[in-house]
Amino acid sequence: MVYDRYDKRFGTLNLPIIPNTQGIHGTIALAFLCLLPLFAIYCFHIGDRRLIQKESLKQLQEVGKPIWWISLQRFANSLLLLSATFAVITGRMMQEEWLPTGEFNHIWYIGHLIGWLLMIVSIAIHLLMSAKVGGLPLLLSIYNWKIRPEDMPKFWLRGFKLKPSTTFLFIFEVLVIGGIAIAFILPAIFPAPQVG
Description:
With 196 residues, the protein is mainly α. It has 6 helices and no strands. The chain has one domain (2-144, 167-189).
C-alpha cells in the first residue's frame, strides 16, 4: 500500500490512494511486530516438524520424491520466519519522511522491500507445496469454517515442547527471537534524527 503510493520503481498494483496510508501501515506493522514473537514461538515449539531440519539439505537432492516436496515446503516456512524477522527489523529503522520526499535508496528501506519480497515468495511456495503435498482436500480444508473439538483453546498447547527438538532448531530460534528483540530495541539505541 505504501510502496504503491510512493515508490512504484518495480511496478504498481494501481491501488486507490487512501488518506494517511503511512499511519495505517504503521498500525498494521506494530500489530505484526507484536504478534510475530507468538507466531515464532508456535513455529518452534509446536510446529517444529514443518521447519527446516538437519537432514533437509540431503533430502533436497531427492528431486521429485515426496520427501523433496516436503523439504522444499520446510525451507519456505523457515524462509518466511527469517524474512518476517528481517522485515520488522528494517521497518523499525525506517523514517516516515523518506518515502513522501522520494528518498528510496536508504539501506533500511531497500532491506524492508527485500524482506517483504522474500515473505511473498515464501508464502507462494508454501501454498504451492501444500497443494502438491496435501492436494485438493488440504486446500479445501483451509476454507472449512466448521469448528472441530480439537480446535478449541484448551487443546492449543497440546504438543508444546519446552526445548526445541534439535540444536539446529534452537540456533534458528535464537536467530529469529533475537532478531525480533532487536527490532524492539534498535530504534531506542539509534533514534531518528530530529528534523528542523
